[in-house]
Amino acid sequence: MPAYDDWNKIDEEEDEESSRLLYDGKRDVILFCIDCSESMTAVYDHPEYEGLRTSHLYTALEAAMQIEKKKIIVGPRDSVGIMLFNTTRKAEGGGYASELKKGTYLFQPISLLSAPKVQELIQILDDARDDPRELKSQFPPTEKRVPMGDVFTSCNWVLRDGAPKTATKRVFLITDEDDPHAGAGSQQLMTSARTTLIDLTQAGVAVEPFFISTPGKPFSTSKFYSSVLLPTNLDEDDEDTGKGALLPESISISRIEDLLAQMRFHEVPKRALFSAPFKLGEDFTIGVKGYGLVTEQKKGTYQYFADLGSGLEPAKSKTVYVDQDREEEVDRNKIVYGASGGAVSANADEERGSGEDSATTRKVKPGHRPFYTPDEIRSFRTMGLETGIKLLGFKDRSELRFEDNVKHSYFLYPDEMAYSGSKRTFSALLKSMVKKDKIGLALALTRRNASPIFCYLLPQEEAADESGWIVDPPGFHIIPLPFADDIRAAPVEKGYQAQDAVVKAAETFVRKLTIKNGSYPPDSYPNPSLAYHNAQLEAAAFRDEYDPDSFTDLTEPNAKAIHRKAGELIKQWKKALHDDESSAIVDEPVAGAKRKADVSVGEAEVRSHCEGGTLSKLKVEQLKDFLKSKSQSVSGKKADLIDRVSQWFETH
After folding, report:
1. How distant, in Å, are the alpha carbons of 285, 297, 367, 448 from that of 343?
2. What is the 3-state secondary structure (H, E, C) of 277-308?
């Protein structure tokens, strides 16, 4: 069996496999829970299209349809369902859908997405576009509102019977009623809703609300939902005292057309990249989860299909190891790993080192190649450490330098399910570090097959915008510290400073084109390559003709608007740049050359070789470096260099 040349291949394979299982195996389940009350089914004139009438229910179903169409391309393993409440329509036939609470109707059970399922919803929306009253006739609203406790209970039953146990389960609640239980008995119904919501969250379900607010009917979260849908607090004390229990008013959607845009932000579930123990001291450990804040969006993984005559069936792939000499399959557990090069004996058992002693070490005969088991290779990479994060100490925050950020950081948040009390301890550590302006130094091994890294723990306080909506959650950023060879000097030998007139002219038109007040939504400008790819897949899935000319690249700059806003300012800047004398001199950056490995040796090592008569084993570069350090000549062949080194040691 040939030697295995790549020592790290086993770790890379298992790392890729674990990452693939994390994202591909972790399914996402979304249940749309849509209100069908009188106000949601009321028809009004469309604000953008003249002569077109619509309703809040139509917009909510259209947003659900758009999410389903996208999921069928980028998340074929995910499941979506639609449940309506405050409607008199009842389920037909048996099954758990007929056992839901009164006033709730399961329009689409939770299941894997398919083209017929989406086309069914598209057909209903097409009918409603022709007749705006179609939705109200299909889903008649109830005279009396359904208690929200019954709504959450029905959601729990639907997810319990239809969603995989290991999936990420979420409920998208869409309504325009801010006080569903006004009048007598409201407090009891509010308590019931809160209790059933707790049962829902304990089952691993997250509720994400989309409240519709209009000028004629503004939505106030303080009337009902602030007491039911509590935001996630890091401090348990806040939950006990009721502090922070008010939902911000900005959670409501002022423009119904923004419903789909808001759903796109919540479409991708927040999945932890790793869960690990956080060791703060001896016998003092809490649980944390790590999240990736920046991830490259890629095309979906392709799948193999086999033509069986009657149709195409998905083909399962597996990796098989074959002995080239015997031409037979080899059990992966019997494979050992080694480096190429050196003499190879004829007997593989001898190569592996059959002479194992009681200390679990193998003796390798001279001229034979050492081999290692997968567990040994893994221990080389992990250095025998267990998965976890160990706090080593603290440093001043000023010691965190800009060049320390060479990789994307992870975000740590406490995991109460791993260790009880993690949330409270994590909060106390965070507050103390923020108060003292400190950062933490830690040793982290985030996954079983990863390499240990030293990292900084940068604390982040909870931050909210003017309306009270949390924009920065509390937690720690794990910043992996770079090794020495991760930092390189800039490949530019010279640089010129622009004159003040050029800088001011550039500032003028840049400020003119700057999007102010943080109104730039990155999710609204998708990757054009991925968008074009997904649009073609969507057309193929629904058997539609795709017109490439219909594709719009949203990232393409609007040249007309740029010239209209800052055309004259850009011309003034170009004129100032032309008048700047330093702009005529252009230094091309030096191409980065591949660096050689550091092969330098110290004086003690060279002296040892000289006394042992083995100076010939040193490389020419090593001999020259030593002679240069002693101000000796480096001309001539290797034999001349060896003689010169020997003479230097005789006189010194």
Report:
1. 49, 46, 5, 33
2. EEEEECCEEEEEEEEECCCCCCCCCCCCEEEC
Q: How far, in Å, are 132, 498, 513, 549 from residue 576 at the CA level?
A: 60, 10, 19, 40
Residue 630 CB neighbours (<10 A): 13
Distance CA 196, CA 66 (A): 30
Residue 42 corresponds to which tokens in the numbers above?
A: 């009321």
Mean pLDDT in the chain? 78
Task: Measure the CA–CA gap between 469 and 462, rounded to whole angstroms.
Answer: 10
pLDDT confidence of residue 428: 94
In which element (H, E) is residue 459 found?
Answer: strand 453-460
Do β-strands 252-253 and 205-212 pair in parallel, antiparallel, or remain unpaired?
A: parallel
Residue 136: other Cβ atoms inside 10 A: 20
Handedness of CA 416, 422, 427, 429 (dihedral sign): negative
| 161-162-168 Cα angle (round to 5) | 110
Place of tokens 């990789």: 407
Compute the distance between CA of residue 521 and CA of residue 538 in angstroms, rounded to an integer: 24
pLDDT value of position 531: 85
Residue 144 CB: number of other CB atoms within 10 A?
7
Q: What letter does residue 597 receive in the DSSP assignment? A: P
Token reading at 527:
């990757």
Region 287-299: mean pLDDT is: 84
pLDDT digits (tens, 9 = 90+) for 459-487: 998 887 665 556 678 999 999 998 887 77
Are the beta carbons of 393 and 441 closer than 8 angstroms? Answer: yes
Residue 251 in 3-state DSSP?
helix
Q: How confident is the model at residue 346 (pLDDT cuts 50, 70, 90)?
A: very low
Q: Which helix (H) or strand (E) holds 199?
A: helix 186-202
- pLDDT digits 0-9 by tens, 502-554: 888 899 999 888 877 656 767 678 888 888 888 888 888 777 888 888 888 88
Angstrom distance (rounded) from CA 589 to CA 431: 46
460 strand-pairing partners: 475
